[in-house]
Predict the 3D structure of the following.
Amino acid sequence: MRRVSESPFQTEPHPRDEAPQYVLPLVVRLEKADPPGRTDALETAARAVLVLLSDERALGDGEWARTVRDWQDARIRKVVRRARGAEWRRAGELPGITVTGKAAQVRVFPPVPLDGWPKELAKLQVSGTDLDDPEEPPTADPGIPVLWMSPEVEMSAGKAMAQAGHGAQLAWWELSDAERSAWRAAGFPLAVRTAGPERWRELTASGLPLVRDAGFTEIAPGSCTVVAEHPALRSR
């Protein structure tokens, strides 16, 4: 089992820096007339990462397994782009998995080389993806995993979606095979919420999986962005 201390989101030099670098593409459907809420998009992106990690094509001798292993052996990068209309339809023709939330739709693709994006995805916009919640998200169910976002770091919706995916991935690595199977069988229930300042201090000192961003885009290297609080990890 991979431990948090070995996290590929750390900023310190590591042998994985010498490996070929890959990126996990995620595309959020963003129609002008009816964009999804921010929290819905973040939760859907996090579930999309988990769906890909647990897909048979990404495991063992599956057709995506080699690239998934290569991606995880290097720095873990995720990039969220946006699409609508014909762009979304073209993205849907590429191998991948579409995950639907309350209203959000996110398509996740097997990892690609950092400089080898498919042309259908390379042309999609990555900057400026921002979303709002129509109302304050309700308190998360205490029985499901919560990805706590930092109250101290400002991020676009696209960046926050990638960070939520990082948090979900760290939690996945920390779980036993039985715990992973149970989470998958339940449909990967989870919530994304922003912690209050005092709660955030408690979470970052708790030993739960913590994302420290490598600083490739938007925010400073080493910024703490997400704590993954899965019920199975609370008592460890």
Observations:
- Residues 1-6 have pLDDT under 50 and may be disordered.
- Residues 157-174 form the longest helix (18 residues).
